[in-house]
Amino acid sequence: MKRRYGMALVTALFAMVFCGALLLSGCSQSEKKNDEPDYADDRAMAVIAQGYQKRSDYIESLGEDADLSSNKVRKEIIKTEIDNDKELKKAPFKDAKMQEDVIAYLNLLDNQLDVTKKYAESDPKYYEEWEKAYDARSAQLKKLVDRYDLTVDDEYQDEFDELIKNGRTVEEKTHNDEVINGLLSSANFEKSDDGYGLYTYTAIVENTSDISFENVYLNVALYDADGVRAEECYADTSAWAPGEKVKFEVMSEVDASRLAPTVSGYSVKE
Q1: Could you tell me which of 241, 238, 169 has the C-alpha nearest to residue 209?
Q2: Who wins on pLDDT, 122 or 8?
Q3: pLDDT per residue over 29-76, tens digit each?
Q4: pLDDT (tens digit, 9 = 90+) per residue, 229-254?
Q5: Burial of 129 (C-beta count, 10 Å sphere; 0-12/13-18/19+)
Q6: How is the chain split into domains, by residue range?
Q7: How many Å apart are CA 243 and CA 212, to the nearest integer?
Q8: How many CB atoms lie within 10 A of CB 90?
Q9: CATH number of 188-268: 3.40.50.1360, 3.40.640.10, 2.60.40.10, 2.60.40.3230?
Q10: Which of 159, 169, 161, 162 is nearest to 136 (CA)?
């Protein structure tokens, strides 16, 4: 009987120690889990969608007679979205790229607000800067849609689609700008002396892209031997299809040592 009692006691003690170890392990795991940062990855798009919708609701609440282009009204509209989204500015993310894209969007909201603070409505530059800020925000929203499936509720969808459509246009123009500027960055203007103090500068450039450009206008700066910009001339071509080589040519009395072309305008063939 004593032996059985002793064995039972040992078994009971072992069970208590084992359960205690499990309990401590469970507590340790729980503490470890509680110590993890509250990552925003899973809720970030919902927060941004809510901010967009609150902004839309505020606009709707102003009524049809509200002047939505006034600085005072625009400030309050933008603040509505900023106040909703501000928690994401300092929130940790597992996905560093998502965090970068979210912060970029929040900064663009700040940029919109800065425009309303910096410029008076009577300043012609106000509308130029507002349009830039509007375009940048819509392009960044499109990125969030494409990369992270940002969605809004059905009642907000039509206006949201228009904003994303504008973002797509901005994105395409940015791409086209980069392409045409890249093509012209390699332009090498050769000089010929025409006599009587006149010089002709000619560059033949191939369109190695898949974009068909039209009505391309260049400003060509001519720099003298001292590196001083002595004159600015103009060159153009009416059409520039993929794979096509075109000649850009300017004439001047300046004996230039360097020419620097910049694009002043172009269109893309549909």
Answers
A1: 241
A2: 122
A3: 544 456 778 999 999 999 999 999 999 999 999 988 888 888 899 999
A4: 999 999 999 999 999 999 999 999 99
A5: middle
A6: 44-181, 188-268
A7: 9
A8: 8
A9: 2.60.40.3230
A10: 169
